[in-house]
Amino acid sequence: MRNVFAAEITALAGVDGRIVLLSGDIGNRLFDTYKERFRDRFLNCGIAEANMVSMAAGMALCGLRPVAYTIASFITVRCLEQIRVDLCYHNLPVVLVGVGAGLSYASLGGTHHSCEDIALLRMLPNMTVVSPGDPVEVREALRASLGQDGPIYIRLGKKGEPVVHKHPPEFILGKAIVVREGEDVCLLSSGNMLPVAVQAAELLGQKGLSARVVSYHTVKPLDEELLSEVFAKFAVVATLEEHSVLGGLGGSVAEWLAEHAPQRGRLLRLGTADAFLHEAGEQDHARAYFGLTEEKVAERVVRAYLATVASGIAT
Amino acid sequence: MATAFDVSITELDAVARRMRARLVEMSHKAGTPHLGSALSCVDLLVAAYWKALRIDPRSPGDPDRDRFIFSKGHASAALYVALAYRGFFPDELLDTYAVPGSCLAEQPSPRCVPGLELATGSLGHGLPVGVGMALAARIQGRSYRVAVLMSDGECNEGSVWEAAMFAPAHGLENVAVIIDYNKWQATGRSDEIMALRPLREKWRAFGWSVYEVDGHDLRAIAEALANVPDGSGKPVAMVAHTVKGKGVSFMEDDNDWHYRIPNADEVRRAMVELQQL
After folding, report:
1. Preceding omega of B229 cis (within 30 degrees of 0)
2. Is the Cβ–Cβ distance between B268 and B206 less than 8 Å?
């Protein structure tokens, strides 16, 4: 995802002279092409995220379109006040890009896990929160972010994420994309869990459950129209994200559900637990730890479905 | 574009006195604190807005204007009065200060009045944002200056020092920071709460071109601020020695006046001292 981001920001900067890329002393070689072509519009801000975000605000106030990039856990939590006060309170067109969302940097330990960022940024008025599901959605999200005029956070995985969209989808901020159709259960996926959702749907199919998969690339604003449809149609609606079950996509959907109860569909929130992970291991180990594998996801969806059958919701 | 306001220091002294009087009245009428903090920076504001800054109240959005960021947001009443007296908006708007429903809250909301560059109130934002504006000037090929007025207590915030390290590294000679060094912060002496001293040496060590001025000497402030860039290739830091509560003898250097609101008798006594009665 980060390579696609680098390529796309380079292409966009060639077309829009207002774009400035700010980096928190990260991205060794990643932005070489960008720097070669747009030396004056690249800034290594050092390891000083608060200053980086405030400077982005200053630039935006002067008509530029800054894009600030560093590790997801840092560009959100370390400088949350700057995001809140300088970007959101002033409603400025700054794009924040966090690399390493969720458990992408699992091996670097808990300091580098980013499982609260959606929740934290979603709380801020005027903030748009985007968690693209694959590299294609990353490209589309970046383009869309520069086509709107408020603060926006895009959380990327890292590298090697599979492409799910074989053809570029119609991408609109705030409008979820149906990736795979199904009739029995619905998986709402946000971010780099999209390939897992697709694989889980395959497994569910083998178990006799037809699963629709939707990419909720935008968590705020939330596509509520689609929620109305899926909660009316499906017995089980599962949210899936490499993020805490608190406050992210699952949390957003739960809030919507509380306002629109009763609904046919039962919500199953799948994500990381409200706990830190203290073990060594790569992303696959961390996902297994939190039950975010296609097998575990399918298992839990089946269990939820059977529970609804038992209570008479499903037919 | 921007026009320098051609006025003498004597006349500016009178403006400063009128501003101080207005601030005392506003604090009393609205029941708002931070009067001591507002009074200490009046001369800095007058020197900037009437002498040093290339600005035009008739074109507050001019892309080539100098930017002045009033980072010590708790003293924003002083900024409001400066902007009004300088002609950015009608005087009468000041009567709505802190009135429920008005746009003039104790600390400003973004774009609440013409001439407001940044909604401050949380300390430590002004300088980093200002540095961003200075970078924009460079990228856009403009030659405006960015001045940031901070309090001494504000120098407690780490974000200030992130910006202080960044600006010299990038040779941002169009940035000037003015520290309203009145030696007090909310609950104590600023040199005791944090090891602020030696302040001038700190800014010099960070790579700034430092000037130490009497923060109540209009001419000295104006000269230092107008001389940005100063030819050193470095951003400029002006350590302005001020007195909290300056201009009203019974408020000067008395930290009670950080929070205390003057009663009617105190207002009257202040008006006499400020030659408004």
Report:
1. yes
2. no
A52 → chain B, closest CA residue: B128
CA–CA dist A282, A284 (Å, integer): 6
> How many CB atoms sit inside 10 A of residue B8's CB?
9
Nearest-CA neighbor of A54 among A77, A22, A23, A87?
A87
CA–CA separation, B136 vs B132, rounded Å?
6
Structural tokens at position A280: 């060594």
Q: What is the pLDDT of residues B261-270, one digit of tens each?
A: 999 999 999 9
Q: State both tokens at A184.
A: 């029995």
Quick: pLDDT tens for A46-82.
999 999 999 999 999 999 999 999 999 999 999 999 9
Confidence band for A314, pLDDT divided at 50, 70 and 90:
low
Share of chain A above pLDDT 70, in %: 99
Is residue B61 predicted with pLDDT exceeding 90? Answer: yes
Distance from the Cα of A55 to chain B's closest Cα (Å) equals: 4
Question: If you average pLDDT over residues A141-167, what whole number do you get?
Answer: 96
Tokens representing A190 are 């946000």
CB B35 within 8 A of CB B245: yes
B109 contacts in chain A (CB < 8 Å): 89
Query: Taking an 8 Å Cβ-Cβ cutoff, which residues of chain B contact chain A?
Result: 63, 109-110, 117-119, 122, 124-125, 128-140, 158-159, 162-163, 165-166, 169-170
- The tokens 């909604």 sit on which residue? B119
Question: CB-based contacts of A119: which residues, under 8 Å, 6+ apart?
Answer: A243, A244, A246, A247, A248, A251
Q: How many C-beta atoms surround the C-beta of residue B213 within 10 A?
A: 22
Q: Which residue has the tokens 């800014």?
A: B203
> In this structure, what token pair is assigned to residue A48?
């000083």
Q: In what order do the strands lie in the sheet with B67-70?
A: B67-70, B146-151, B175-181, B236-241, B209-214
Check residue A28 and give its pLDDT.
77
Cα–Cα distance between A106 and B202 in angstroms, integer? 40
Q: Which residue has the tokens 């840092």?
A: A74
CA distance B130 to chain A (A): 6
Q: Cα-flanking dihedrals φ and ψ of residue A243, to 5°?
A: -165, 160
Nearest to B35 by CA among B18, B21, B14, B17: B21
Residue A197's nearest CA partner among A177, A219, A220, A180 is A180
Q: Could you tell me which of A185, A193, A189, A166 has the C-alpha nearest to residue A177? A: A189
Taking chain B, what is the end-to-end CA distance rounded to the nearest angstrom?
38
Q: How confident is the model at residue B217 (pLDDT cuts 50, 70, 90)?
A: very high
The Cβ of residue B189 has, within 10 Å, a number of other Cβ atoms equal to 12
Work out whether strand A218-220 and strand A128-130 pair parallel, antiparallel, or are unpaired: antiparallel
For B105, the token pair is 């809250």
Q: What percent of chain A has pLDDT over 90?
A: 97
Q: What is the pTM of this model?
A: 0.97
Q: What is the ipTM of this complex?
A: 0.96
Is there a contact between A134 and A190 (Cβ–Cβ < 8 Å)? no
The CA-CA-CA angle for residues B176, B182, B185, to 5°, reads 105
**Peptide linkage before A93 cis (omega within 30 of 0):** no
Convert B71-80 to b/e letters by CB count within 10 Å (16 or more is b).
bbbbbbbbbb
